[in-house]
Automatic annotation (TrEMBL):
PANTHER family: FAD SYNTHASE (PTHR43793). The keyword Coiled coil does not apply. The lineage of its organism: Bacteria, Pseudomonadati, Pseudomonadota, Gammaproteobacteria, Enterobacterales. One of its GO terms (molecular function) is nucleotidyltransferase activity. Residues 5-122 form the Cytidyltransferase-like domain. Gene3D superfamilies: HUPs. This is Adenylyltransferase/cytidyltransferase family protein. Transmembrane segments: none annotated. InterPro entries: Archaeal_FAD_synthase (IPR050385), Cyt_trans-like (IPR004821), Rossmann-like_a/b/a_fold (IPR014729).
Length: 130
């Protein structure tokens, strides 16, 4: 069985999120998704998510392509998460290209292109400005 792991905030869930999750799942038999905690998102992006971690976790867990979800507490724990879930590969969006290559000693790291013209940050800005 091939286990694929990916991570994200998944705030204001959109088709770009769905695309990357479907593509990640197609690479293996099992997809495990780490959903960034509210505190981690504040640290990474300088803002709290629109939807809290409990809601974001429920949204991702409800997807047919996702087999298991967990809260990602720290970027520094990525290697631990890869080991804990026996991941055979790590998949991320190419907005993170190169940032996780250091984990290639544990498993292959694949960066998927983002869905064109879709960005959570842009969507939040549109919502806030309306």
């Amino acid at each position: 069985m091939t286990t694929v792991i990916t991570f994200g905030t998944f705030d204001v869930f959109h088709v770009g999120h769905l695309n990357i999750l479907h593509r990640a799942r197609a690479l293996g038999d099992r997809l495990v998704v780490g959903v960034s905690s509210d505190a981690l998102n504040q640290q990474k992006k300088g803002r709290t998510p629109i939807y809290g971690q409990r809601d974001r976790l429920a949204i991702i867990a409800g997807l047919k392509c996702v087999d298991e979800v967990f809260i990602e507490e720290s970027l520094d724990l990525k290697a631990d998460y890869i080991r804990r879930f026996n991941a055979d590969m790590l998949v991320m969006g190419d907005d993170w290209a190169g940032r996780f290559d250091s984990f290639s000693f544990l498993c292959p790291v694949i960066y998927f292109p983002r869905t064109p013209s879709i960005s959570t940050t842009s969507l939040i800005e549109v919502i806030r400005n309306d």
